[in-house]
Amino acid sequence: MLKKYNEDLYKIRNSIKTCGEKIIMANKALLEKLTDCKEDKENDPKAYLKNLSSILNDIDNEIIKVLALTSPEARDLREVIAYFKITNELLRASQNSRSLIKVLSNNCSEIDQDIIKEYVIPLEKSSIKAFTIAMSMLDIDDVDELKDILHEVLLEEDKADELYSIVEKKIFKSLKDNSDFQKIHYILKAIRRFEKIADRATSIANLVLYIFEGGALERV
Questions:
Q1: Which of 50, 71, 123, 176 has its CA 20 to 30 A from that of 101?
Q2: In angstroms, rounded to a whole number, what is the distance separating the alpha carbons of residues 102 and 190?
Q3: How far is CA 79 from CA 13, 23, 205, 211, in A?
């Protein structure tokens, strides 16, 4: 039973890592398009997110089976619970990514290119870095190392928050009297999704640390 349990957890963890990688690749593809405001269909960011919600739902079902059939305790239980909550964070990150791709792919030219290059692209890079680092924690089992990596994620999240604040101020400052305020607000709302993805990265990082340290689960 223990061997089967470990094999099931290994498969679940790998499936989670695969989903995380898809989200990272989608955002990297979007970053490439933002760099030159490309509108071609090559390396479509949306393709990486295809059926991701369904895949995450299947992972949740596998987690429920493990809970029902093995009734894990202590750290084993924390690990299963953490995975169950991580899939929710991945779902939210994928939804944020879809919104970003939809809005920015169609409205890139509406944003001052200097603002994109100086602030929006660095914002996305921080978001991607935070998410990538957080997902890498699934391969680490040393608590001290995990804490160090969590600190890196938090630094990138703070950077994303700060960059979004600057983007917001810069875009509103660049508005002209005849600007479509509603459209600009719509675009800004999408750009904020980068910040939200960094938030999801922090949640994932904290959940991985929870596996080893326990404690209270906090909503981020």
A1: 176
A2: 9
A3: 10, 22, 13, 5
Structure tokens given for 63: 């987690």
Domain hosting 92: range is: 2-213
Per-residue burial over 101-129, b if 16 or more Cβ lie within 10 Å, else e, is: bebbbeebebbeeebbeebbbbbbbbbbb
149 vs 190: CA distance, rounded Å: 28
- Give residue-wise pLDDT tens across range 30-68: 998 888 776 656 778 999 999 999 999 999 999 999 988
Please report, rounded to a whole number, the percentage of residues in the chain having pLDDT higher than 90.
63
| Percent helix, strand and coil across the chain, each to the nearest 5 | 85, 0, 15
Residue 92 and residue 89: Cα distance in Å, rounded? Answer: 5
The CATH number assigned to the domain holding 130 equals 1.20.58.220
Query: How many structural domains does the chain have?
Result: 1
Predicted model pTM: 0.91
Looking at residue 138, what is its pLDDT? 97
Place of tokens 């593809």: 29
Residues 205 and 213: their CA atoms lie apart, in Å, by 12
| Residue 96 maps to a domain | yes
